[in-house]
């Protein structure tokens, strides 16, 4: 997984240099893209390579936020969760209803901003987002990034399952190419 080690190194080097970001007005956010098939390997690398390397780059407070856990907690916290019977007749409507509620309430965006707020009082924080593949079918990280982009104040590294071409990304290698991202790819 030397390729991912190199990508982590380049992303952390980029995020640890605010002088690169400030003159251009870019927010301290970047993506490390990985092949969907390598997800488990990338996740295994977080505690043994990514976090220690982040600390080497001067990030004293490193937090990993699982988007999957955010969504699971949100869905499971609803009173109707235990009462829903999923059958083929209502399955699509159920997922569509949950998707709409997650988007209307900006669940993922608010979780990221909440994590950022918790970390603001620490010295040299870094927020790492993982489990983006669990956003499907509820939301897309591009939409979430657009909601919070101007509010990002601490470095955020997003582990992104998919490929890139220039600044455009292909989520999970199944969605059409999306070129609406402002942040840097590694």
Give a quick summary of the entry.
With 186 residues, this protein is an alpha/beta fold. It contains 7 helices and 6 strands, in the order H-H-E-H-E-H-H-H-E-H-E-E-E.
Report on this structure:
The chain has 186 residues and is an alpha/beta fold. It contains seven helices and six strands. Strands 1, 2, 3, 4, 5 and 6 form a six-stranded mixed β-sheet that branches. Strand 4 (156-165) and strand 5 (168-171) form a beta hairpin. Helix 1 (2-15) crosses helix 3 (39-56). The longest helix is centred in the N-terminal third of the chain and has 18 residues, at 39-56. The two termini are 14 Å apart.
What structural class do helix, strand and pairing data support?
alpha/beta
Low-confidence stretches: none
Strand content: 15-25%
Main β sheet profile = 6 strands, mixed
Specify the helix fraction band. Answer: 40-55%
Straight-line N-to-C gap: 14 Å
Order of helices and strands: HHEHEHHHEHEEE
Which value, in Å, is the CA radius of gyration? 17 Å
The residue-averaged pLDDT reads: 85
**Total of DSSP H or I helical runs spanning 4+ residues:** 7
Backbone shape: globular
Overview features:
single chain; 186 residues; alpha/beta; six-stranded mixed β-sheet; 18% strand; globular
SSE blueprint and pairings:
Blueprint: H1 2-15, H2 18-21, E1 29-34, H3 39-56, E2 61-66, H4 67-76, H5 91-104, H6 107-119, E3 125-130, H7 141-148, E4 156-165, E5 168-171, E6 184-185
Parallel strand pairs: 1-4, 1-6, 2-3, 3-4
Antiparallel strand pairs: 4-5
Helix pairs in contact: 1-3
């Amino acid at each position: 997984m030397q390729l991912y080690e190199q990508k982590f190194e380049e992303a952390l080097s980029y995020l640890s240099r605010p002088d690169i970001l400030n003159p251009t007005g870019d927010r301290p956010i970047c993506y490390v893209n990985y092949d969907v098939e390598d997800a488990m390997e990338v996740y295994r690398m977080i505690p043994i390579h990514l976090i220690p390397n982040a600390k080497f780059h001067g990030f004293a407070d490193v937090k990993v936020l699982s988007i999957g856990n955010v969504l699971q907690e949100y869905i499971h916290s609803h009173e109707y969760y235990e009462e829903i019977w999923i059958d083929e007749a209502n399955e699509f409507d159920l997922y569509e209803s949950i998707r709409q509620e997650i988007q209307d309430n900006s669940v993922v965006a608010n979780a990221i901003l909440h994590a950022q707020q918790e970390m603001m009082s620490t010295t040299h924080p870094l927020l790492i987002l993982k489990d983006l593949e669990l956003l499907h079918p509820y939301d897309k990280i591009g939409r979430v990034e657009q909601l919070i982009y101007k509010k990002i104040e601490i470095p955020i590294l997003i582990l992104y399952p998919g490929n890139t071409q220039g600044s455009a990304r292909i989520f999970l290698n199944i969605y059409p190419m999306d070129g609406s991202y402002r942040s840097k790819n590694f």
